[in-house]
Amino acid sequence: MLPERYFPHDESWIKEQIAQLPAHFRAVAIKAYSNVYLEVYNATEKPHQKDGEARREANTRLREYVERVLASQ
What we know:
Elements: H1 11-20, H2 23-43, H3 50-72
């Protein structure tokens, strides 16, 4: 299962991150990733920066979320 919005080159990395999570945390992570990606994409003014900014923020938040969840286990 993948987020609705993401950059295609990040697909395998996203899958790896999501796979590390216990099943009941995966849906939350996937929905949050899509929301963050879309929010940042829409808020970025310069068209040539939209994907880069959205990728950076969504990937950073996913990585940090996975780290927090795994640390609490």
